[in-house]
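Lecture 7 notes: from sequence to structure.

We start with a single chain of 117 residues. Read the sequence below before looking at the structure.
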Amino acid sequence: VQLQASGGGLVQPGGSLRLSCAASGFTFSDFWMYWIRQAPGKGFEQVSGINVGGGTYLSESVKGRFTISRDNAQNVLYLLIKRPQTDDTGLYYCARGISGIPGYDVWGQGTQVTVSS
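Now the structure, written as tokens:
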């Protein structure tokens, strides 16, 4: 069971970036999936989630700017970041939800997003 996040980098405020998370070793379409970030010196923040039916959740801090999606045929989770702000800087992790209860049981390795002009 593995999650491999990619797509991070340096982005200017007002630009855009798409993160990807490739899943393997499990039936991707059966699980809720999440993006979680950790800003420098701060704790973890769940920024977005998507359920098995495609329903999505976005935290208030990213609503209207981030879009989560999934491709169950390719086993890939995405996070489209638009109009990033400096507060969006951090390490972004994808994670698999635990069936039936809150929490995550598998994490990717994280991909760094830095927002700077």
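The first strand starts at residue 2 and ends at 6. Keep this in mind for problem set 3.
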